Amino acid sequence: MAIHRSDSPWAIPVAQVGSRAGQTKSVDMVMPAPSGIGDEYFGIPEGSDVRVEGRIESLADGLLLTATATAGLVGECSRCLKSLDQDWLVQFSAYFPYDMPESTPDFDGDEDIDAGEDEGEDTYPLFENATIMDLESTLRDFFVGSLPSQPLCKPDCLGLCPECGADLNADPQHHHDTYDARWSQLGDLKRRLEQLQDGDDGTSDESGDGTDDDNDAGTNAGTDANGHPAS
Ligand SMILES: [Zn+2]
Ligand SMILES: [Zn+2]
């Protein structure tokens, strides 16, 4: 069963531009995002709109696509956990040689043509007698390669306070006196240890306070319940 690449939503007809070297064709298309760009937590959702703007140049032995692809990036900021809803843009060049077998994975081609790697281009096959350029794997490769390992809502996101979780973007002056807090906690610990060592003194102080409170409460309750003093 032959796959009709011309039916692919990523297909660009290139028969005309490829008919003679030196021609160009401008590209401005909206395509669905291919699968596999990021994951369910962060990436470009499959099927969402990708705008591809650029141009195709026909060279002696293939077609060169130079383009900018823009898509909606979805996920969470890795610092402040805010939902990301931003355009993600990737600029790329891809080369489509006329004589590249359709079944050859592009990484084999890269290994064979080391010199070509200097230009930073990736190589993809054309389809249907070099009349169809299909951008599915091209878009996937370049978007996957461009996704940040740590997505940010903005480049200078201040993130969350590690002490209390406050959003530091909303309050850049926010801070805690970290050293004071730690020393005072140590101070509390020291006092408790001293109380434990003293033993009876510390325990009797605490139970004494408790007893006083209980007595007060009991007296008040008794008075209120009776309305008047019983005796
Ligand atoms: Zn953020
Ligand atoms: Zn804080």
TrEMBL record:
The keyword DNA-binding applies. Transmembrane segments: none annotated. It holds the Pfam family YceD. Residues 217-231 have a biased composition (Low complexity). Residues 197-216 have a biased composition (Acidic residues). Keywords: DNA-binding. Residues 191-231 are annotated as: Disordered. It comes from the Bacteria. GO terms for molecular function: DNA binding. PANTHER family: LARGE RIBOSOMAL RNA SUBUNIT ACCUMULATION PROTEIN YCED HOMOLOG 1, CHLOROPLASTIC (PTHR34374:SF1). This is DNA-binding protein. It comes from Pseudoscardovia radai.
